[in-house]
Amino acid sequence: MRDRPDRYMIRAKGFEYLGETDFFMGFGYSRSVAMFLQAILLWLLASLAKRHPADVRPFTAALFLASLVNVGISWKFIFPVPVIFGLVLTACIGVSYLLLAKQPKDGHM
């Protein structure tokens, strides 16, 4: 991540976007809601994976890829803390994907 002067200018002065001045606050809240939804979906998929691991694997792959892209976006545009949490989350989803591949079709080990 590089230090960019435009970030300092935006934080210091603020700016108007489509008539709104709280763009960053609104965007941050919408990201928080999306992350909360992701946590709920992962929780629900975890309980479903106990019974039907093969059915859950495509959803896990999609969430893994989305999380990986999100880490890249965070690395380029945000700051290190979301990158660290994103990497941990992505690693956990990746491990769960690999563990689901090892389970038999009926879900019993």
3D structure, described in words:
- This protein has 109 residues and is an all-alpha fold.
- It has one domain (5-102).
- The protein has 4 helices and no strands.
- Helix 2 runs antiparallel to helix 3 and helix 3 packs antiparallel against helix 4.
- The longest helix has 29 residues, at 23-51.
- The chain starts with a helix and ends in a 7-residue tail after the last helix.
- The mean pLDDT is 81.
List keywords for this structure.
109 residues; mainly alpha; 4 helices
Brief description of this entry?
By secondary structure, this protein is an all-alpha fold.
Architecture blueprint of SSEs:
Layout: H1 5-13, H2 23-51, H3 53-77, H4 80-102
**Low-confidence spans:** none
Query: Can you give the mean pLDDT?
Result: 81
Radius of gyration: 18 Å
Largest sheet: none
Total count of domains: 1
- The count of helical stretches stands at 4
